[in-house]
Amino acid sequence: MSSTPPVSPIYVTLQQAVAEGYAAYSTLRGYIADGRLPAIYIGGRIKIRREDLDALATPARQAPTRDVVAAVERIVAEAPPLTPEQREHLAVILGGTS
After folding, report:
1. pLDDT per residue over 25-78, tens digit each?
2. Alpha-carbon distance 85 to 67, whole Å?
3. Residue 77: inside a domain, yes or no?
4. N or C terminus of the chain with fewer C-beta within 10 Å?
5. Which of 4, 95, 92, 16 is nearest to 50 (CA)?
6. For residues 76-91, b (16+ Cβ closer than 10 Å) or e, as one string?
7. Which domain of life is it from (predicted)?
């Protein structure tokens, strides 16, 4: 006997998707209503393909890459010096103290 892992179902119910942490029930219903999430009825229940749920995922914010950091450093190095008023204004914009 081979011990193969169980295959996850292609379709899941809204309740299963919520339990697995994809989104809140009302959020998933909204996605279905506005066409962002395809769904079907099977046996009187709304079901969603797992791959469609996975497609909703967005990457978490990542740290800037070295290219971005290098570009910012170049811009800062080439920029003229800021006046004290400009520094204060920039600090306020960036959430620092005024």
Report:
1. 999 999 999 999 999 999 999 999 999 999 988 777 777 788 888 888 898 889
2. 30
3. no
4. N
5. 16
6. eeeeeeeeeeeeeeee
7. Bacteria
- Structural domains of the chain, count: 1
Specify the residue for token string 């070295």.
66
Residue 87 is assigned to a structural domain of this protein: no
44: containing domain: 11-55
CA atoms of 94 and 88, how far apart (whole Å): 10
Mean pLDDT over residues 76-87, rounded? 89
Q: What span, in angstroms and rounded, lies between the C-alpha atoms of 20 and 16? A: 6
- Looking at residue 38, its pLDDT comes to 95
